[in-house]
Design a protein that fits this description.
134 residues; alpha+beta; Glutaredoxin; 4-stranded mixed beta sheet; 6 helices; 13% strand; globular
Length: 134
């Protein structure tokens, strides 16, 4: 059963393989249609993320609610989970003391290493570190 209208937009970097894989996973699980998926490369992302400084937009993925509220990066992970089928219980487990730092560390590790983890082997150079030459 699809939602009449998405509850939130998931704004992601379509040039990053890890980001695109994350989007595709969420899209496959989103049987209710709670998400609208918007690439940071689309003009619509400028509208959704207007309150956010331009330099901060490419630093992570974002969840933008219909009321304009924006949550980003590791802070957005529980919000994505909550909007997926069966996610309400998992959402509250992610709120258990000690989980927030674990989510932050995990998210930041993936963010720093996404060029290694990417199926596309592409992430814009200003967003992810590149391996040093030997």
């Amino acid at each position: 059963m699809k939602a009449a209208k998405p509850k939130a937009a998931l704004v992601y970097d379509s040039d990053c393989g890890v980001c695109t894989n994350f989007k595709e996973t969420v899209e496959a699980l989103d049987r209710r249609g709670n998400f609208e998926f918007v690439s940071l490369r689309e003009p619509r992302s400028d509208t959704l993320l207007a309150p956010m400084p331009k330099e901060a937009r490419m630093s992570s993925f974002h969840v933008v609610y219909a009321d304009g509220r924006i949550v980003s990066a590791d802070e957005a992970v529980p919000h994505v989970v909550r909007l997926l089928p069966g996610g309400a219980v998992t959402y509250w487990l992610l709120k258990v003391p000690g989980m927030k730092p674990l989510i932050r560390v995990s998210y930041n590790w993936v963010r720093r290493n996404r060029w290694r983890l990417s199926r596309k082997k592409v992430c814009p150079p200003d967003e992810a570190p590149r391996p040093r030459a030997p």
